[in-house]
Amino acid sequence: MDQKPTVALIYDFDGTLAPGNMQEYDFIPAVGKSNKEFWSEANTLAEKQDADPILAYMARMIQEAQSKGLSLRREAFQESGRNIRYYAGVEQWFARMNRYADERGLRLLHYINSSGQKEIIEGSSIAHEFKHIYACSFLYNVDGIAYWPAVAVNYTNKTQFIFKINKGVESVYDTHMVNRYMEEDKRPVPFKRMIYVGDGTTDIPCMKLVKNYGGHSIAVYNPEDRNKRREMATLIRDNRVNYVCEADYTEGSEMDTVVKTIIDKIAVDTRLEHLQTAKP
């Protein structure tokens, strides 16, 4: 094989790589609200206006920042990302998995697919690990001030980014390339070489999509919430995910073992496919 086959490891962010929601580490305290107050107001706005909850929380972010005189520049949102705390082992995870895949003849790329804020993720200590970050973002005026949503990622339109990764299309704006017919074996990342990691209901359509197309889906839960495993186990019973693991990314953890085993399987399957198609 001239070029190593690509494997995509796709993550939700909030509750998957970090506990809670990313706005709760810095932004919400900065506007003088409790987490409960902010999300309650955003959800109430969505309910009263019959609006998308994602667009409603983005509107509340702009309103709250304006009312408190906080900066709405991209750099200010990015600064919020520097305060995010992760689950155990996250910061060491990417290099270790990259090495593991490389040793098995595969190229591993990491992606974010999140309903959180792209600008906040961009400021996090792990932002450089990702090939691309698909998440909510704002439009900015000529002075660099956020004034309107540019991208709102809810639980159903999250699935569009799976197809973009499949066809190697990174642009959110580009709808031509992602809808153009492309033979499955010509696609940069076939579904069978995808691993999707998520933690909740907003990830279910993506997890089921990847699983049904021959990839692998992993539901993770906060290790401090032991009751959550029983709740998440219903996702396996309902044929929505392949595995349920603690959100523990340290070496030797259940998550570490599951992902390495999936990489092993992809490596073997890829070699077998190559043997089948090799000329005599």
What brief labels describe this structure?
17% strand, globular, 280 residues, alpha/beta, 11 helices, 7-stranded mixed beta sheet
Terminus-to-terminus distance: 15 Å
Relative helix content? 40-55%
- Taking all Cα atoms into account, the compactness measure Rg is 19 Å
Strand arrangement, largest sheet? 4-3-2-1-5-6-7
Content of β-strand: 15-25%
How would you describe the shape?
Answer: globular
- Tally of separate helices: 11
Instruction: Give the H and E element order.
Output: EHHHHHEHEEHHEHEHEH
- Which blocks of ≥5 consecutive residues have pLDDT under 50? none
Biggest sheet record: 7 strands, mixed
Rounded mean pLDDT is: 92
Number of strands: 7
Structure description:
This protein has 280 residues and is α/β, with parallel strands linked by helices. 42% of the residues lie in helices and 17% in strands. The protein is built from 11 helices and 7 strands. It has helices spanning 27-30, 35-49, 53-68, 74-81, 90-103, 118-122, 159-167, 176-179, 204-212, 227-237, 254-277; strands at residues 6-11, 107-117, 132-140, 146-151, 194-198, 216-221, 243-246. A 7-stranded mixed sheet has the order 4-3-2-1-5-6-7, sandwiched between helices. α10 (227-237) links the parallel β6 and β7 (243-246). The protein is globular. The model has no long low-confidence stretch (mean pLDDT 92).
What is the fold's blueprint, element by element?
Blueprint: E1 6-11, H1 27-30, H2 35-49, H3 53-68, H4 74-81, H5 90-103, E2 107-117, H6 118-122, E3 132-140, E4 146-151, H7 159-167, H8 176-179, E5 194-198, H9 204-212, E6 216-221, H10 227-237, E7 243-246, H11 254-277
Parallel strand pairs: 1-2, 1-5, 2-3, 5-6, 6-7
Antiparallel strand pairs: 3-4
Helix pairs in contact: 2-3, 5-11
